[in-house]
Design a protein that fits this description.
Blueprint lengths: L2 H16 L4 H10 L17 H4 L3
Length: about 55
């Protein structure tokens, strides 16, 4: 990857991280990406993420 592409990706990641996000928007985004079900459970393909994001 070119250096300018890397810089653009880093800048994009920083701007995304700095955005204010509300829970509903995040849930809707994850559901549209087929990562979460309508009942807010992880789909089978992403079930391993439960270990990362679980508060327990």
């Amino acid at each position: 990857m070119e250096n300018d592409q890397v810089k653009l990706l880093k800048d994009l990641a920083k701007s995304i991280k700095a955005e204010k996000k509300d829970r509903a928007k995040v849930i809707k985004s994850l559901q549209s990406a087929k990562i979460l079900t309508k009942k807010e459970n992880f789909t089978a393909a992403y079930s391993n993420l439960r270990r990362v994001v679980t508060n327990k």
